[in-house]
Design brief:
The structure is a single chain. By secondary structure, the chain is of the alpha/beta class. The chain folds into 2 domains: about 250 residues, Rossmann fold (3-Layer(aba) Sandwich); about 160 residues, Rossmann fold (3-Layer(aba) Sandwich), CATH 3.40.50. It is built from 16 helices and 17 strands. It has a 9-stranded mixed sheet with strand order 3-4-17-16-10-9-6-7-8, sandwiched between helices. The chain has a 4-stranded parallel sheet with strand order 12-13-11-14, sandwiched between helices.
Length: about 450
């Protein structure tokens, strides 16, 4: 059960300057009381209220009346880590412009190629200013470059101290956020007033306590386009089958939402819902029935689905278990099935992953990235540390990194998103037992 104390963010005790007038006079100023419910349901709130306690809630993100740093003395650092994602440059631009024009901070170091740059490795940091970041939002990727893998925490803190960094903004996924938490803890042990603020980056939308992450809407939009192309290919062949492999190592949010956005998809396979290939209720038997009726089928599969068929050995540089290529496995297995049964058919395979993650953000993501960057700067200037900026229950929040990195967020097989998927595709449960074909 969630403990309300787990959601209380850390804030440096120092208060050295008031909020700049441009913010104090033109918008709301927030306090540190928790007021964004972790679970907005009546059932979840009833028990603590009846016990005379407040339900677990997050602190609202936004400007604070008192700052932990004098803007004239601040040198900020910014780093992007992990895989590419639409919107990275939008966040870099928003953080830079917010520091420059909301707080008057004009010393901003952009560390190159992830935590390796924070540790002091070449190339040296890029000085971020208006001219450098003004048009980067029109481009995909990250101006600063990125990398995976851990770095020595003490070495990173040493470099931050040497460069007189007051606030470090870390843009990345769960591994990056764990690194940010380690940097914050090491600085605290040394008695260093360093604010470390994370900006969650997960194109898979799988970070805990983040109901919406940047890059995800763009990924869903591009995935729906891939499904449309796959549908055209499938319909253009007798017994045509198109397979679209989408991102989603542990969570199938992209595949699920793309299926909902484009009902031309007939089957959606995700890591959270096991499936079988053989047997009367397996995928191949369903495919035979589907082709007999409609002569085509479109399958969207998340990269982490069906790993029991294609388990791979080892781990990548970020410590993630390597995935087997379930997309090509399914393509080859369906092709083999056609040969074995003598059923004439054509299998097409589409993997748009790098087209999705390396492109620029769409309008929905771009707007969201501006807000994330602004709230990250508000949090850093107020002295919050070991936190990230989240979005939960329609509000921007300040989330302790320990709470955010406990586990990954996943689809619930009995939850409303997945139930809408199966209602849309009318696909069966692909495990053997009583037939559940809804078509």
């Amino acid at each position: 059960m969630l403990n309300a104390d787990e959601l209380v963010p850390t804030r440096l005790s120092r208060r050295v300057a008031p909020l700049p007038a441009v913010l104090a006079e033109n918008g709301p100023v927030f306090d540190d009381r928790p007021n964004v419910l972790a679970d907005a349901s009546v059932e979840a709130a009833r028990t603590p209220i009846e016990a005379g306690e407040l339900p677990p809630a997050f602190v609202r993100a936004g400007p604070r009346a008192e700052l932990a740093f004098d803007p004239a003395d601040v040198r900020a650092g910014l780093v992007t880590c992990g895989g590419l994602c639409p919107g990275l440059n939008d966040v870099i631009r928003s953080i830079t412009f917010s520091l420059l024009y909301l707080y008057g901070v004009d010393q901003i170091d952009g560390f190159r190629y992830g935590y390796a740059g924070v540790a002091g490795e070449d190339p040296p940091p890029l000085a971020l200013n208006h001219d450098v970041v003004d048009s980067i939002h029109r481009e995909g990727g990250t101006l600063l470059g990125s990398s995976r893998g851990p770095q020595d925490v003490d070495r990173m803190v040493d470099n931050l101290v040497q460069r007189k960094i007051s606030i470090l903004f870390c843009i990345g996924g769960d591994g990056t956020l764990r690194g940010a938490s380690a940097i914050s803890a090491a600085a605290a042990r040394r008695g260093i007033d360093l604010a470390v603020v994370g900006v969650p980056k997960t194109i898979d939308n799988d970070l805990l306590w983040v109901d919406r992450s940047f890059g995800f809407p763009t990924a869903v939009e591009m995935a729906t386009e891939a499904i449309s192309v796959a549908h055209n290919e499938a319909r253009g062949a007798f017994n045509g089958v198109s397979i679209v492999k989408l991102m989603g190592r542990h969570s199938g949010f992209i595949a699920a939402h793309a299926t909902l956005a484009n009902p031309d998809c007939n089957v959606c396979l995700v890591p959270e819902v096991p499936f079988e290939l053989d047997g009367p209720s397996g995928l191949l038997a369903f495919l035979d029935r589907r082709l007999a009726r409609s002569r085509h089928c479109v399958i969207a599969i998340a990269e982490g689905a069906g790993q029991g068929f294609v388990a791979a050995d080892g781990f990548d540089e970020s410590g993630n278990k390597r995935l087997g290529d379930v997309g090509t496995f399914l393509r080859d297995r369906i092709t083999e099935h056609f040969h074995t049964t003598g059923l004439p058919g054509t299998v097409r395979y589409i993997d748009p992953s790098y087209l999705v993650r390396g492109g620029p953000a769409n309008a929905v993501d771009a707007e969201f990235c501006v807000s994330l960057g602004q709230h990250a700067v508000h949090a850093g200037m107020a002295g919050f540390t070991d936190v990230m900026v989240g979005h939960w229950n329609q509000r921007f929040t300040i989330v302790p990194l320990q709470a955010a990195t406990q586990r990954r967020r996943q689809l619930e097989p009995e939850g409303p998103i997945w139930q809408r998927v199966v209602q849309t595709t009318r696909q069966p449960v692909f495990t053997n037992g009583p037939p559940t074909d809804r078509t």
